[in-house]
Amino acid sequence: MSGVYALRMYEGDSRAERDPVRAQHWRRIKRLFLEALDRPEPERAGYLARASAGDEAVKREVEGLLAGDLAAGSFCEIPAARLLAGHASGADHTPRLQAGARLGSYEILNFVGAGGMGEVYRARDTRLMRIVAIKIVGALPSDVTAGQRLLREARHASTLKHPNICTVHEIAEAGDVPYIVMEFVDGRTLSQIGRADTPGPQAAVVYGIQIADALEHAHRRGIVHRDLKSSNIVIDRDGRPIVLDFGLARSLPQGDELSGADSTLTAQHALAGTLSYMAPEVLLGARADARSDLWAVGVLLYEMATGKLPFDGRTPFETSSAIIGQLPAALPRTVPLALRVVIERCLAKDPAGRYQRAADVRDALDAIRRRRTWRIVGRRLVPGRRQLGRAAAGTVVIALVGAATVELAQRFRNGAGGSVIPTMAVLPLENATGDPALQYLADGLTESLLAQIGAIGTVRVISRTSAERASSSGDSVGEIGRALGASAVAQGSVRTIPSGLRMDVRLTDVGTGKILWSDEFERAGQDVLVLQADVVRAIAVSLRARLQPHVRDRLAIVRAVNPEAYEEYLKGRYQWNRRTRESLRLAMEHYTRALQIDPTYAPAYAALADCYNQLGTVMVGAGSPREYRPRAATQAIKALQIDSESAEAHAALGYVRHYEWQWQEAEREFLRAIELNPSYALARLWYANLLMSRSRFDESLRQAYTARELDPFSLITNTNIGWILLHAGHPEEAADHLARTLELDPDYPQAHWRMANSRATLGDLDGAIHHATRFAGLTNRSAAAVTLLAELHARAGRIGEARRFLNEYLELASRQYVPSTTPAATYVTLGDLDAAFTALERGFEEGSNQIAYLANEPSFARIRDHPRYQTLLQRAGLPR
What whole-number distance in Å separates Cα of residue 529 and Cα of residue 552? Predict the structure, then answer.
């Protein structure tokens, strides 16, 4: 709107600061102008007469601004893109200038086209000897005020310097003729290209990235296009989209203007034109802003991908009604779902539901281009679609960029060097819903936040288990942070509100105790995943400069899920974290239900793989690894087919390959998981166990110690460090470490198991039997526990006791599955080598986890040089 631009130019005028009277005068003009704009046009004159209180000078200024506002678009009545491309309407128009005429140093070559007040010519710059386009005021040459407004708007647009924006070279006057000299774009408009052939989804992504980047450049300089459409974009000879008419777009069409709007890619209805690109809020009378431009980007992307408009009608009324109250026409399956989601978000009716910045659209499209995510499955269910009819459940692909409406006031910094804080902790979110049954929601959201923040890679994130244990101490945030080795601590709560959910989050500097940042995030119930994305985005914004390209891609498109499926997934995670045989089965039921609702939700497949892996271990022992491990591999592979960058799925597959003795493939999967999420402590721990299998003890301990830094209070991590130390030949250090682990939890079964082995290696058989007895009591006399007691009693010379425990194992094996390898060490101690090797060979057949550790298992030290044992090592591909 030229009136608005005039006010903007005044506000940037330094004379106002030097002249208080002038400033007061213009403040009054601005107030009256804006208040008049809020009234229907027929009422404006009466309002202005009353409000100006007889001040004719003020009244004239405001009337000029209002007139300019109505005529703002007349300069581009025929879009420059169409004129510059040589396809103007108005063939019967008599141009004011003829070939050979001069405007300053410019020689007119030919008339291109005209519309309303605007005429466009092709001209030669006689100074620089280049071809340019010149636009002049044609219809009302005597309207000096209109001409001056035109030049002011052009000066505003001339500040834009971007490879995808038509350059304004000069603004000048020749006599009473104001004119603008612009870059002459040699090419065809998108509308012309679309008449011949639909550009298609790939072109939509490539062009969309550049168009969004051009908009970002303009928006940062306070310029909103307001008339972005296919006829305002020229594809030049090099294949670049060039956007024209920045800052020169007309205001909302009035009356008959609608019928004269330009054509679209389909050229189906001439009346559609500009109206088809208008955002709902503009049609309802609100001011256009950057988000209105992003609506137009959504229309363009839709149009380029399909050759059709998302909203169409036989009359202007039908078209505007569709834009305001209807969903866009469904996109065909030929449009990749990742692109569908970007389009759908641009076309959200509520501006708050769209991307908030053009850069966010650019980043989302660029992530699609670079990762070629053409096969991502699913679509975002916008509230309007759900109200009109529940769509089939599908993966929600949330374009994360732009989800947050807040930026952190400052980066995470430590007190001394000002560098990015290396370690942060996220304390368990408080369940402030008032319903204890919703605890899984708070826990699940906490865990999801941890995983996504950890994947950023530029900050270490303490694992959930340690943060949960530390926060239960009742200590202050500073004390908790110091106990965890964190420099910053995030904490917050989640609660239900009438419209959905609210999450309150704050970040505290451990060193100073100051709150670095805090904010509230609200979303409708079906958008709980967007709520989560908002928080992650708010933290990621402060680290943007440090993000690697693949991390930016990961943040640009985050795979989420139907809310009901996500709820089942969170319940599954709650049960998974309990790690009992029964809780794992409950977790699997929840994950299975999640996948019944949404069979394309990758995290649920990865979580099922983890469950199958654990059910096939010695500790849980619910079934043979030959039964569960192929299922785990299948689920992990399904997850990776949907989301190739799932750290959880890569780690789960690495776990499978480790115990299938596919050493190189297992290591490759673990390293990929760690690359994708350096803060994923469990992946590091499993990788440490693989390295221990290969007798690469130094590397193994490095990974295990890193896992402990990420999860300092983790019982399994601390226990496994003791286990690695024992296999590396350091039983005393192992025993010391395991003793400290038992101080964290005296009833942790695995710590007693590994302590029993360590004490036995040190020759303390009584101490070993004490811990083995505790292990048996804590596991309801599991197969691993009773065979350990059998081995220890045999080593102590108590053969009768050893036989009794061995018979207990055999009786248990007659009733349920038990690992075949567990009695092998007892048979070795008893001297029954045939029985020992038979047990180990059966372990090969069932894929027992224990086979992976034969190269350095202390219990088999006596038979390591035996030919049959060497054959087993060779069979497993282990170092001999």
Answer: 19
In angstroms, rounded to a whole number, what is the distance separating the alpha carbons of residues 660 and 849?
A: 9
Structure tokens at 373: 């995510």
CATH of the domain at 114: 3.30.200.20
- Based on the fold, state whether residues 96 and 173 are members of the same structural domain: yes
Question: Closest by alpha carbon to 566, among 608, 609, 539, 527?
Answer: 527
The CATH code of the domain that includes 431 is 3.40.50.10610
- Is residue 761 situated within a structural domain? no
Question: Contact 525/500 with Cβ under 8 angstroms?
Answer: yes
Name the residue with tokens 């110690």.
Answer: 705
Total of domains in the chain: 4
Rounded (10°) CA dihedral 115, 119, 120, 121: 140
As beta bridge partners, residue 413 has 420
* Domain of residue 120, residue span: 73-183
Smallest Cα–Cα separation from 338: which of 402, 403, 404, 395? 395
Q: Are residues 255 and 362 in the same domain?
A: yes
Tell which of 119, 152, 183 closes a domain: 183
Q: Quick one: 161 and 271 in the same domain?
A: no
Contact 781, 751 (CB under 8 A): no
* 667 in any annotated domain: no
Can you list the positions of beta strands (E) in 350-433? 397-399, 423-426, 430-431
Structure letter (DSSP) for residue 245: -
E-strand stretches of 219-368: 233-236, 241-243
pLDDT of residue 667: 97
Kind plus residue range of the DSSP H or E element containing 125: strand 118-125
Q: Quick check: 779 and 815 in contact, CB under 8 A? A: no
Helix (H, G, I), strand (E, B) or coil at 55: coil
In this prediction the pTM is 0.56
Mapping DSSP to helix (H, G, I), strand (E, B) and coil, where does residue 473 land?
Answer: coil
Distance CA 110, CA 107 (A): 9
Beta bridge pairs of residue 517: 507
3-class SS letters over 809-834: HHHHHHHCCCCCCCCHHHHHHHCCHH
| pLDDT of 686 over the 80 cut | yes
User: Per-residue pLDDT tens for 601-650?
Assistant: 889 999 999 999 988 876 655 678 888 999 999 999 999 998 888 999 99
Same domain, yes or no: 314 and 431: no
Percent of the chain's residues with pLDDT above 90: 34
Q: How far apart (Å, rounded) are the C-alpha atoms in residues 878 and 855?
A: 6
> β-strands 488-497, 423-426: how paired?
parallel
Name residues whose C-beta falls within 8 Å of residue 782's C-beta, 6 or more positions apart in sequence.
Answer: 619, 621, 776
183, 208, 223: which is the final residue of a domain? 183
CB 33 within 8 A of CB 7: yes
Kindly state whether residues 80 and 54 are assigned to the same domain: no
Is residue 487 within 8 Å of 422, Cβ to Cβ? yes
Tens of pLDDT, residue by residue over 116-167, are 456 788 999 999 889 998 888 644 444 455 555 556 656 666 778 899 998 8
For the chain, the maximum distance between any two Cα atoms, rounded to a whole number of angstroms, is: 118
Statement to judge: residues 56 and 79 lie in one domain: no
> Is residue 225 in some structural domain?
yes
Domain assignment present for 543: yes
Question: Is residue 492 located within the same domain as residue 366?
Answer: no
Question: Are residue 239 and residue 252 in the same domain, yes or no?
Answer: yes
Within 10 Å of residue 722's Cβ, how many Cβ atoms? Answer: 28
d(CA 530, CA 405): 12
Nearest alpha-carbon partner for 216 in 279, 163, 275: 163
CA–CA separation, 341 and 365 (whole Å): 10
Q: Distance between CA 91 and CA 87 in Å, rounded?
A: 10
Average pLDDT score over residue span 790-798: 96
Report the alpha-carbon distance of residue 33 to residue 38 in Å, rounded: 9
Q: How many CA atoms lie within 13 A of 715 on its CB side?
A: 18
